[in-house]
Amino acid sequence: MLNKTLLVTGSSGLIGSAVVENLYTDFEKVYGLDNNMRAIFFGIQGDTRWNQQRLETHIPNFSHIEADVRDRAKISQVISEICPSLIVHTAAQPSHDLAAKIPFDDFDTNAVGTLNLLEAVRGHASDAVFIHMSTNKVYGDAPNRIKLREMESRWDYDDPHFADGIDESFTIDQSKHSLFGASKAAADIVVQEYGRYFGLRSCCLRGGCLTGPSHSGVELHGFLSYLIKCNLEKTKYSVYGYKGKQVRDNIHSYDVAQFIRQFFANPRIAEVYNIGGGRDNSISILEAFTKIESISGIKMNFDYSETNREGDHICYLSNLSKMKSHYPGWGITKSLDDIFCEIVASWKHRLGTALL
User: Is 96 inside a domain boundary?
Assistant: First the structure.
């Protein structure tokens, strides 16, 4: 028997569209709520209408809702009318650097928008499951206090406690988050509170580098997608600090969607999970240059600044132990090689003759 209704906010983005594509067969109706704010935040390069149109064309039970999560009355109306069984909240202002230039838009989108959804769910769909795409930036720059060792092409943890990465007990306090990290931390905490205080079945997914072929990567957000796009177009990529050895763990949007499916099948209350690629899917900027050059045959064009981004992580690896213990049927299925090849193919398709 199919579940009744899925609502995905930010449905034209990377994770939102992956959730629609991978879960639509589980539901009678799928609604995607989006208003292409990524194009407002990042300009034409961040436009996601192409992805919206792709979903409308290929997902038979998908309906697009043009709405802004900051519009409290509209959000309440939407939740009341469709009464979703599952809400996957991926809509956000996702850039650290941009947040400092638009602090009200950032906080209103990330924190207040999340509260608008939660309160509408409490009032009109209290039996629903609520999954919030949070971020590892709720930990601020505290991961930079972990003892590190410098290797030839990357930084790595030099503390055996973190051999498998950072787990959910890591502090979110007393650190520099960027305003983006602060607004997302506020949303993360309020999602937990609606679980603990009101009993909402919910979780926060504190993402590492979420990636995949449907990413509209730009310089201010979308590490691998943007890096690969720069290589294919032979445009300059800027590296900010840490010798280009800063490390991220990358998880394909498909694997994120599969975890969401597992959580919905067996939901918990006010859970928090660090979701990323783990050590096996980790890569530094320098290593990413080498990998894309080997795939495309194009030498990476880049410049380097000694000044790192505010609050940027030197090395971040997600410890996936809690996720795997709670949901042993879930695991990483997409390798770094898979991720690179799929992103390359996607950009070649989207850019078309521009690459010739």
Answer: yes
DSSP character string of 45-89: GG--HHHHHHHHHH-TTEEEEE--TT-HHHHHHHHHHH--SEEEE
Q: For the chain, what is the largest distance between any 2 Cα atoms, rounded to a whole number of angstroms?
A: 57
Residue 356 counted as domain residue: no
**CA distances to 54, 114, 279, 305, 316 from 156, in Å:** 39, 34, 10, 21, 9
- Could you tell me the two tokens for 122? 């409490």
CA–CA distances in Å: residue 260 to residues 181, 272, 329:
22, 13, 12
Structural domains in the chain (count): 1
DSSP 8-state secondary structure symbol assigned to residue 1: -
pLDDT tens column, 251-293: 999 999 999 999 999 999 999 999 999 999 999 999 999 999 9
DSSP readout, 108-130?
IIIIIHHHHHHHHHHHH-TTSEE
The per-residue pLDDT for range 136-169, each reduced to its tens digit, is: 999 999 999 999 999 999 999 999 999 999 999 9
Helix (H, G, I), strand (E, B) or coil at 252: strand
Q: Which residues contact 72 (CB under 8 A, 6 or more apart)?
A: 116
